[in-house]
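To illustrate the input format used throughout this study, we show a single complete record. The first block contains the structure-token representation of the backbone; no residue identities are included at this stage. The design step must infer an amino acid for every position from geometry alone.
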């Protein structure tokens, strides 16, 4: 069995993209194309997720309960985030759907992206190509925004984001 050297941030992106497909007919080349991540990185990511118990051995079924546990209890410790300077980008966390309908805030958080339509405090995405990938997939954008609300660790946003993720993963 191959040694597990720990999860990488983009492994979460890959798993959430698989969930956003909402079917199991996807191919690795689809993930690579949609996420703008090389095929070899996708392959390694899937292998890490299998070894960690977040993906089935056939690499087609997400172990949603285990993924939710990891996102809820481990993510903010493994891939923490603190807001940075004000930049142009694409809204994330509570600044976009679904949380923007629930949480009212004057603080705007964005993934830095030169083609973004908003200005706000920068949040480093789990992979540099997340902003571009999310422009083409609103469901992925919602999932990753919920994940960012968890990563930021603010109690109120965290609690609501976990509940929203539960609903989307069930």
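Output of the design step:
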């Amino acid at each position: 069995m191959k040694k597990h050297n720990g999860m990488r941030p983009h492994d979460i992106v890959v798993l959430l993209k698989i969930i956003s497909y909402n079917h199991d007919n996807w191919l690795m080349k689809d993930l690579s194309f949609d996420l703008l991540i090389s095929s070899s990185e996708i392959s390694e990511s899937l292998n890490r997720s299998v070894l960690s118990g977040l993906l089935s051995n056939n690499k087609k079924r997400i172990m949603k309960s285990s993924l939710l546990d990891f996102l809820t209890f481990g993510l903010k410790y493994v891939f923490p985030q603190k807001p940075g300077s004000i930049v142009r980008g694409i809204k994330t966390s509570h600044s976009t759907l679904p949380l923007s309908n629930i949480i009212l805030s004057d603080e705007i958080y964005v993934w830095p992206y030169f083609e973004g339509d908003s200005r706000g405090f920068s949040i480093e995405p789990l992979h540099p190509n997340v902003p571009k990938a999310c422009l083409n997939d609103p469901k992925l954008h919602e999932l990753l925004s919920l994940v960012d609300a968890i990563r930021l660790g603010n109690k109120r946003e965290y609690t609501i984001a976990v509940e929203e993720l539960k609903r989307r993963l069930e």
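Structural context for interpreting the output: The chain has a mean pLDDT of 95. The chain has two domains: 9-78, 86-169.
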